[in-house]
Amino acid sequence: MHFTIMKRLMFLFFMLFAGTTAWAKAEWQVLENIQLAAKPLDVIVAADNRWIYLLDDQGQLAIYGTNGQLRETIAVGRDVDQIKAGPREDLVFLLSRARQTVQLISVNVIEEFDTRTAPSKGPADAPITIAVFSDFQ
After folding, report:
1. What is the pLDDT of residues 73-112, one digit of tens each?
2. For residue 132, is pLDDT > 80?
3. pTM of this structure
């Protein structure tokens, strides 16, 4: 009986330590380094990966493009201490432990295009310009 226990222990030892160990190597590089004026509290990426939302300790929600360019800053209040991505790219949850609230806000970043040199029809001073991107392949 003693021999059977020894055999089982040796088999267990063999199974635990006999396998080969493979060490993975990770390569990494800094793609963007954003210098902030205030201490960051939280960061999220929009559902469509177009925007980076960064909350700081001064109550500002900064919106960055994925190229690291600041697009807009929204004052959300110093009591907001956490943000969460919504189910759509334009929705952001603002969490405040001090107020015990969760706010859902809709954020729409307005894109501006310089159409002064683009081909157009109609008067140059028209109040609305409709841009059609139809030459993409």
Report:
1. 999 999 999 999 999 989 999 999 999 999 999 998 887 7
2. no
3. 0.66
Letter string b/e over residues 45-75, b meaning 16 or more CB atoms within 10 A of that residue's CB: ebeeeebbbbbbeebbbbbbeeeeeeeeeee
For residue 55, tell me if it sits in a domain: yes
Region of 57 please: left (phi>0), alpha (psi -120 to 50) or beta. Answer: alpha
Look up residue 93 and give its amino acid. Answer: F
Please count the structural domains in the chain: 1
Read off φ and ψ for residue 11, nearest 5 degrees. Answer: -65, -45
56 domain-assigned? yes
Position 100 scores a pLDDT of: 96
Distance CA 55, CA 5 (A): 60
CATH of residue 61:
2.40.10.360
